[in-house]
Design goal:
The chain is mostly helical. It is about 70% helix and about 0% strand. It has one domain (about 70-300): MetI-like fold. It contains 14 helices and no strands.
Length: about 300
């Protein structure tokens, strides 16, 4: 009798892609849990707090007010003044950063002696912590021994030391200068990386067609820099809108509310007035405004790519 052949068992073999996906999900699970606890939960909880009239001066009476905190903020004239100052500070800062960073990136994109040393020096402001940066500029602007007053006296622009941060007309410009000095290095790096990605044959073809330096810059360099410009604009706008360190260290919202921006108002409402409901609502308004701005920048620049 012939032996009947037993059918071979076919083991279930998962495709490599499915196995990799399951392994990735397994390894990412701890990180997702940590992010949920550290980031997602506080964001959702702060929105929940913004719906209450929560004040630590009366912790046992926390009424649920729905969106009354938001309506109260929109009815406050000081809020709209702080919005105008924040918008002015953001526009001045971002435009200055983009212009200076573009010039620095174009310079560092060329081959010359000392380029690496200049690149290393450029990174120094970026490496300084924000608090140290604020303290440094506070000493520079000081009315008694500040380096800026000393320089202006040496050049003959002033005949005595002046109170720099006490002038309501100059305060925002001085804070903008300190912020730009800190943020230019990162913007320069981002634009320099974009410049390095431009194909050299585009410039060669333009030279063959007789295009001069300015024409090559306008028709090749600038269009190719649009992704870098968009990234710098979004990042620096977010940093400027929510910036707090310099306003706290240099002026504390003064003089006479001349530097009272939205980020400073969030701090005042939350940690000085102890109104956590209003402070959370202000923070959400600022976050939503930042996301809307980023959305429109991405949408407008993506059409040009």
């Amino acid at each position: 009798m012939q032996e009947t052949k037993r059918p071979r068992r076919r083991w279930l073999v998962l495709p490599s892609s499915a196995y990799d996906q399951r392994s990735a999900m397994l390894f990412l699970t701890p990180m997702v849990l940590v992010l949920s606890v550290v980031a997602v939960f506080p964001v959702l909880y702060s929105f929940w707090i913004s719906l209450f009239d929560l004040k630590l001066t009366r912790p046992h009476r926390v009424p649920f007010v729905w969106f009354d905190n938001y309506l109260k903020i929109f009815a406050d004239p000081l809020f709209w003044e702080s919005v105008a100052r924040t918008a002015s500070f953001t526009v001045m800062s971002v435009l200055s950063i983009m212009v200076i960073a573009t010039m620095m990136a174009l310079l560092l994109n060329e081959d010359f002696r000392g380029r690496r040393i200049l690149s290393a020096i450029l990174l120094i402001p970026w490496a300084i912590p924000y608090v140290a940066n604020g303290l440094m500029w506070k000493w520079i602007y000081d009315s008694g021994y500040g380096a800026l007053n000393g320089l202006l006296m040496q050049l003959g622009f002033i005949d005595k030391y002046v109170v720099m941060l006490g002038d309501t007309d100059k305060t925002m410009s001085l804070i903008t200068n300190a912020f730009v000095w800190k943020e230019v290095p990162l913007a320069t790096i981002l634009l320099l990386v974009t410049l390095k990605s431009i194909r050299a044959d585009l410039y060669s073809a333009a030279k063959v067609d007789g295009a001069n330096v300015m024409q090559r810059f306008v028709h090749i360099t600038l269009p190719q820099l649009v992704p870098g410009f968009a990234l710098v604009m979004i990042y620096e706008s977010m940093m400027a809108i929510r910036h707090f360190d310099l306003f706290f260290i240099l002026t504390e919202g003064g003089p006479a509310d001349a530097s009272h921006v939205v980020a400073w108002q969030v701090y005042v409402e939350t940690f000085r007035k102890l109104a956590f409901g209003t402070g959370s609502a202000l923070a959400y308004i600022m976050a939503i405004a930042t996301f809307v701005l980023a959305y429109f920048v991405i949408r407008s620049t993506s059409r040009k790519l």
